[in-house]
Design brief:
Strand order of the largest sheet: 3-4-2-5
Shape: elongated
Helix content: 25-40%
Number of strands: 7
CATH class of the largest domain: Alpha Beta
CATH architecture of the largest domain: 2-Layer Sandwich
Order of helices and strands: HEEHEEHEHEE
Strand content: 35-45%
Number of helices: 4
Largest sheet: 4 strands, antiparallel
CATH topology of the largest domain: Alpha-Beta Plaits
Number of domains: 2
Distance between the termini: 65 Å
CATH superfamily of the largest domain: Protein of unknown function (DUF541), domain 2
Amino acid sequence: MLKILSILAILALTFGLYACEDTDNITISPEPQNQMSVSGSATVTKSPDIATSQIGVQTIAKELDPAINENNRKAEAIINALKALGIAEKDIKTISFNIYPQRDYTKDPNAIIGYQVDNMLSVTFRDLTKVGRGLQDAVKAGANNIYGINFTLDNPEEAQNEARILAIQNARKKAESIASAAGIKLGKIVSINESYGSIPIYRDYNKSAAEGSVPVQSGELGVTVQVTLIYLIE
């Protein structure tokens, strides 16, 4: 009899332990909160204050040394012409220097018949009135490769901050309008996401270029910020 009672006690204790373990593993998930997402955007228009352009020289010769020497001479002349215009040394940067063997694939593809040397500079113009003259002087000095002109802002954060404030105001007004129409009450904002970019806005100013310079129009920049606000719904 005592043996049977001992077995029953052990079984009761064992089941009791399992019951405790099961109770400890039970978790209650919070109910999902109702949320509302709304987006707003704003664009601030600014006049660009700097311009960048890639200016380079390409030379070709049958022998490598003459191709390099001619390229070096013209690249140095371009740099000196830009400095003479008032472009600071820190705003003239070499971004690539390449040598390409030339081959006649219609005859012997393994035979080198000449060399092409390319030297490319990135130039920043902080005085936009000098862009056209700078391009013209660079060409006169020997530049034969020019890739685009990019007008931008030296300090884009200021325009982005202005557009951000307007975008958030736009999103909040939209959220309040939706909440009022739907008969709901907005709670606190739990998330804010942002994206931004700038696009050129072209204007026809009918400005004539100064004599001896490339005609250039800087136009304006539209800095756009878009925000997405997520509200709790009370």
